[in-house]
Amino acid sequence: MKKLLVVFAGLMLILALSACGQKSQADVVKALNEKLTELKGYKADAKMTLKMGSEPQVYDVEVWHKDPDYYRVNLKNEKKDQSQMILRNKEGVFVLTPALNKSFRFQSEWPKNSSQAYLYESLVKDIIDDKSASFKATDKHYVFETKTRYQNNKMLPYQEITINKKDLAPISVKVMDPDKNTLVTVEFSNVKFNATFEKDAFDMKKNMTGAQLEVPVMAEVKDEGFSVKYPALELEGVSLTEEKEIETENGKRFVLTYDGKKSYTLIQEKAEVVQTTLAPTNVIGNPVDLGFTVGAMTANTVSWTYEGVEYTLASQELSPEEMIEVARSVQVAPIK
């Protein structure tokens, strides 16, 4: 009996010592906050997979951040003409589309005004801000499930963030719908904290020129395969009431009108390639992440370019969240 008591006491001591070595959720959140406070910048590569359309789309993402407010996010997918770059420097926020030789400048709070699955400091902020976040520790990782701060967080309300125990670097992010189905996955690699940057690393003109060495400006956007796409999202009491086809100097323009409890218009036409480099187009609004591309959102419109087609969604009655949800659903296979 005495031997059993000694063995039991020894096991309890081992368990107690083991428990002492485990960090609590509060400990990890505090460490992440301290890491962010001390961080002067970083570089990271990631693979982003979207499962929002008829088939998954994969993007390579290169992220640069220099404290406090300089950003460079380079998004490239298999179709090179879909490559885009989001840039933030002292002059504003820019969205560059090198294949079309187009750039837009926003006076925007991006990326502070929404969750960003590929930005480390955004993920840490989501973890810190969500007091009801769940937490678990594995052998090598800390795993948090938090709410998101997306403008359309009804569609993507949750995310699972995995952090490396060793250096608190991001490992992966899974962004989920209300039923906890994963629609966006970001897998990080080559995360380098406190990276150094050249003086002009965040210069707009330099980045546009550099991007066009990888993705040359297209001579023109081909009309081949241009067919009308329809939103897959069905809003209650709203239906397609009119579809117009208009001939323009650049080809066909399609205008879809939806009416009912709320009304909106969706315009589609071949995108134009800018043949000479112009100053960025100023936009009163914000860049908006549609998943498959980055668009521009103003008070009553969302506009974006995808596969050589320019889309404009306009409404006086849809909420910003509804406009984003409708826009996101347009990229699926055409339905009618």
Question: What do you see in this structure?
Answer:
With 336 residues, the protein is α+β, with helices and mostly antiparallel strands. The protein is built from 5 helices and 19 strands. It has helices at residues 2-21, 25-38, 120-129, 204-214, 320-329, and strands spanning 41-50, 57-66, 70-77, 84-89, 92-97, 102-106, 134-137, 141-147, 158-164, 170-176, 182-193, 238-248, 251-260, 264-270, 281-283, 286-289, 294-297, 301-306, 309-314. The chain has a 12-stranded mixed beta sheet, with helices on both faces. The chain has a 7-stranded antiparallel beta sheet with strand order 12-13-14-19-18-17-16, with helices on one face. A hairpin with a 2-residue loop joins strand 12 and strand 13 (251-260). Helix 2 runs antiparallel to helix 3 (120-129). It starts with a helix and ends in a 7-residue tail after the last helix. Residues 13-20 have low confidence and may be disordered.
